[in-house]
Amino acid sequence: AAKAAGKNHFMRYAPEMRTRTELRLLLEHALRSALDAEDQLQVHYQAQQNLDGSLIGFEALVRWQHPQLGLISPAQFLPAAEEAGLMAALDESVLRMACAELRRWRESGWPQLRVAVNLSNQSFRREDLVDMAARAIAEAGVPPSSVELELTEDIVMENVGSAVNTMDRLCALGIHLSIDDFGTGYSSLSQLKRCPIELLKIDRSFITDVIHDESDHAITNAIIALAHKLGIKVLAEGVETQAQFDLLRQSGCDAIQGYLLSKPLPADALPAWLAARPR
Ligand code: C2E
Ligand code: MG
Ligand code: MG
Ligand code: MG
């Protein structure tokens, strides 16, 4: 009877397990071809603004335009891309598309704009990262000083010595570096001070309730004070309301990004968005 039950058990669960594996392989296969046919990868752009009102530029945020499934958000496919080891290829494609787009903004009357591109840990560990970035930027014909790379806290902490070396070489190109989602990872202050970082991006999770949650407010103020002592600027992510904006201004925050300013927009919506802004 036990054997029969065991067999039933197997019969019941085997198809599901096979389906899960198949699904993952399907997704992986689809992602590989999406990376080959670059038109399936889209980049949306979200504005970043200084507290004095001046526009810094836009963060490039990838989307997958699947022929049958429609627009898929990064949260839905980046984990599979990571598991499949596809993040380096994906980040490189996004960097190339973002730099090409940056060139169009700069040539259409916005020469001061910057673009910020996310780098996964897999990308950061590429042996040829610095060469790849230099080539992508040069081929797009934009100044390296108009490109920012957003790193994760984990990158910085994993192996500080070699991470700082890589960051120094990126900075030597003229690229700017920031740390994304700050406050959610495990960076230590002593390690942070060794990094050539220009900007900390406070994670949205601290900003959401910053008005009502005293701890979030205290954490936000502490991050700003610390960063400023280290000569680093601070941007708050996920700013949705004027009240949050006002509080962040009082706290001495340098810049914001969030729905208050703009949602991430497809590239072809940017000219109208820019035209509607006072210069
Ligand atoms: P992130 O880099 O922290 O980007 C900010 C995310 O917060 C974006 O989600 C953006 O749409 C969302 N967001 C911005 N402002 C607001 C707001 O006011 N309210 C709310 N509720 N959300 C806001 P998205 O585009 O879904 O991207 C999610 C994450 O995926 C990104 O977080 C980033 O970690 C990753 N990602 C996106 N594109 C790339 C890429 O090209 N390469 C890599 N390595 N990662 C990427
Ligand atoms: Mg980011
Ligand atoms: Mg972020
Ligand atoms: Mg975030």
UniProtKB/TrEMBL annotation:
Give residue ranges for domain EAL.
24-278
Coiled-coil regions listed in the entry:
none
Name the chain's protein. Answer: EAL domain-containing protein
Query: What is the scientific name of the source organism?
Result: Aromatoleum diolicum
